[in-house]
Amino acid sequence: MKNTVPSARRRRGALMVLAAAVMLALTGCDGGDLVSYDLPAKSGRYTFEAKTDDVSTVWQYTSAEPAKDDAPQLSPCMGEVVGGDTAACRPEPLIFLRYDFGLALDNTVKAGESHDITVVGYYQERLTALPKVTSLKAETTFDGGRTWRPATTRATGKNTFTTTVRNPRRDQAAHGVGLRISATDSQGNTVRQTLPSAYTLR
Question: What is the pLDDT of residue 48?
C-alpha cells in the first residue's frame, strides 16, 4: 500500500478488506480473506493495490480518523475478536465491482454482435455512511491489453451501470475480450480494475 501522509501510527485493525474480492465477485462467492493494518494519525489519501491471478485492481481513497463507535456492534474490529486490541478502527470506503457478463451456458459471448455487461459498485457491509458511485468508464481490449478502446456506458440504477461492447469476429480476439473499468464515487474515491480476458467469443 502506498500513502501520502506521515507514517505515525494511530490504530490497529484499521481495515477489513476482502482481499480476494476481485475473483470472489466474478465467481459469486461470499467469503474472503480479511486484512487489517495500521494507518497514520491524520486523515489521508491512500492507494491500495491488489492482484488476483491476472485481474488487477487499484483503489484510491481517503481515510478519515476513526471514532470509537465507527465499528458496528454486530461487526466488531478484528483486534477485538482475535487479539484483545480495542484501538479505534473502521472499514475503508473502497469501491468493489460486481459483474454480470450475460454469458451463455458455455461461458462465451457471440462474436460480431453488441453485448451488454452490467457492472455494480458496492462497499464493505461494515461501512456506515455509504457513498454513491457517480461515474463509471469502461474500456475494452481484443489483443490481450496492448490497445484499449472506450465502450459506451450508461447509468441504469443505483451504483449500477451498463456497458455495451461491440464484439469483433472471433479471429480478431484470439485471447478473448478484456475489460478495464474506472469508477468514482461521491466522496472522490476511485477504483480501476483490469480484466485482461473477461470472456471469450464463439
Answer: 92
- pTM over 0.70? The answer is yes
Between 146 and 2, the higher pLDDT residue: 146
CA-derived radius of gyration, the chain: 19
Question: How buried is residue 11: exposed, middle or buried, by Cβ count under 10 Å (0-12/13-18/19+)?
Answer: buried
Predicted confidence at residue 187, as pLDDT, reads 95
> Nearest-CA neighbor of 98 among 123, 80, 132, 61?
123
DSSP string, 31-84: ---EE---EESS-EEEEEEEEETTEEEEEEEEEPPPPTT-S-TTS--HIIIII-
How many beta carbons lie within 10 A of that of residue 104, not counting itself? Answer: 11
Going from the N-terminus, what domains does the chain have, and what CATH number goes with each? 2-201 (2.60.40.1930)
Q: Are 202 and 108 in contact (CB under 8 A)?
A: yes
